[in-house]
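step: validate -> pass
step: tokenize input -> pass
step: predict -> running
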Amino acid sequence: MANAAPVNPLRAPLRRLIDAWTQVRLLEPAPASLGLDPDLTTLYVLPRSSLSDGLLLEVLTRQQDLPDAITPRQLGAHTLPAQLSLPSTRRRLWQRRQGSRSPFQAAIEAYRDTGRDIQLVPVSIFWGRAPGKRFGLWQLLAADSWRLTGRLRRLLAVMVNGRDLEVHFGAPLRLAELDDGREPSLTDRKAARLLRVHFRRMRSRVLGPDLSHRRTMIEGVARSEPVRRAIDDQAGQSPRQRSRLTRRARRYGREIASSMSYPVLRFLDGVLRRLWNRLYDGVDARGLESVKALAGEHTLVYVPCHRSHIDYLLLSYVLYTQGLMPPHIAAGRNLDMPLIGPLLRRGGAFFMRRSFRGQPLYSAVFKEYLHRLLNRGHPLEYFIEGGRSRSGRMLPPRPGMLSMTLDSFLRSQREGTPSLVFVPVYIGYERILEEASYQRELAGGRKRKESPLALLRIVRRLREPHGRVAVNIGDPLSLADFLDHLRPDWRDASTEDARPDWRRAAVTELGETLTRRINAAASLNPVNLVALGILATPHHAIEAALLERHLTLLAALGRESAIALPPGEPGDWIDQVRSLGMLEYHPHALGDLVTAAPARATLLGWYRNNVLHLYALTGLAAFAFRHQASHTLDGLERLLAPSWPVLVREFAIAPAASLREALADTLESLATQGLLERDAETWRRTTSLTGGEQLRMLGRLMQPPLERGYLLLSVLLGEAPGHFTRDALTERTRQLAERLARLTGRDSPEFFDARLFAGLVHSLEAEGWLRTREGRLYYGSRLREGALRGQTLFDPALRHRLQRIARHAEV
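step: predict -> pass
step: emit ->
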């Protein structure tokens, strides 16, 4: 019989002290979801022997109605402690070599003697990783990190950070599944190895890889083979020039490298917690479970949409408070300003110049630094759009960082490093801090340089209401799986300086895939929904009752597509938008009215564009019934087939496997909502006045992009093939769109944003409608036929207005 450990008479009072003093801030997963078998013996496993961890576990199991971690377990003639810890792999000179067996061997023998299975539950406990509302020198010194923790430091952690604890339970490990009948010592080592891997991954997930000294990292980058080759190429045979370029490489490294610090991360957590509580009503995070399943085992690259400067801080804060290590963030050098830059650098930001052109040494240093971050498994974050979206829609992806990440990944595969997974992130605001500057810049104003003074101007707005924020995790993308699908032979790129011929196409496809996944993660908030409704009216004015009915329609269509909706009812959503100062409410004897002033309507357009892609096919189908009362499914498919692929690219939508099937589902949805009626094989516009008005409002959602496409094709087809360059066509069409906006009274600068027309030209090229030769755009009869078919979407009056505007292209 195994002897039970003697009971420490001080343990009970110490347990009561721990119970009174500590508070668990994050407990994952919920105990009910652990899947513990109540009929099996449960033993808890800690990564190291620790009195404070053991006492806390005893308290926690009683509070959470789990099998207690106090009472020894009796299996036949064997008495097993409720808690085990992994045997230490460290030896100290003053310690004797331990002759006792590993704690798992007793459990294995008990299982074999009795035949009763045992479940081992790993438990990771982190003290003071995020001090929350209380932070200071002692909290920062006492919190967990990768440093070895001694008894005095552990006592300090309990005293100082006992109110902010993270506890992570692992999936139960059953001895019956581990025991293969061999010697108990072999099964013991197998169990210890599996648990040690689990604890290492959990620690890496929560704390990230160990942060090496910044100076060591910079020196390693400067001495790396790629950087030395760049120096040799520029220095030639001159030792003096080589020495000068080596010093320059180190200077570049200091300019680029972050200096992430655990104390600063904990300090920023406290500061940002106060900021969010002051600025927003709440932050809603969705989909983080998929990230937690990947963290610690894969290198994660977060790729959020870029809507605000707050994006940098918001995502790191959400990850940190959810028990994940914040990423290193690629930031523009313009943010490396006095006071702000050093703080961001210590919070994980590394800085990059906007262009590497003509700077081969800087390029080599930056790429090597990026490679070392990825190679060591540090999570990374960058914005594939390049800059913040002033129009509110997802911008086309820039290839720079994606290309460097792909190059690093190909190089890393030869070195056997962890796999790389992209994590798309959608961030949705009810109100952004930069709304005034975005309006000014869209109207033609110059972008102001970032400075501490500019940030102070933003601080003045902290007392204004800004609603809630959504941080949604999209479907993660494994880079290896992506390449396996795109290029099954990608592993053949074996030499260090290989740049395979498929690389450029792979980067383009990778960027488009990620933008689609970011957009697919979008959710709706009250401002989005109200903007979709009120901007679909000619004069940005609508009866309150009709707006509520339309919001109900939009919500119903969203639910069918499994889109996350805000809590509450349409009336609550309208009140929320009013509280943010974006709507005006006018009581009236014949029915209350809701209006948006011109400046506010322009701002609402930004929020509408965040989610317009979610209703693209619905809006396009509704627009087809604008002047034609009925369609068959075959006829509607032929009518929309030329326009839909271009809109798919413009709005970064995942294309449906079959347009016909997607259209059929859309028509069924519109019929369910009372907007269409079906007669055998024909779909007809409803005769209901309310339903007809709602159908027209849905159709107006797609009217602006369709009008832009009409103008561009009219300009292009008005000249012979090869007449226009890409830039000339974009600029001429932009001018016409601006003219149309002015003549129709639209105060909507994003309607004639040059980037939209540049993206439209790119989409036509990608779909094969256009081809470029010697910088000129050429088209064939296929484009002319598609344009003629697409014109029938427009009613005669609208077509006449667009044709009249387009004639100015010929002047």
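step: describe -> Residues 291 and 423 are 8 Å apart (CA to CA).
step: cleanup -> pass
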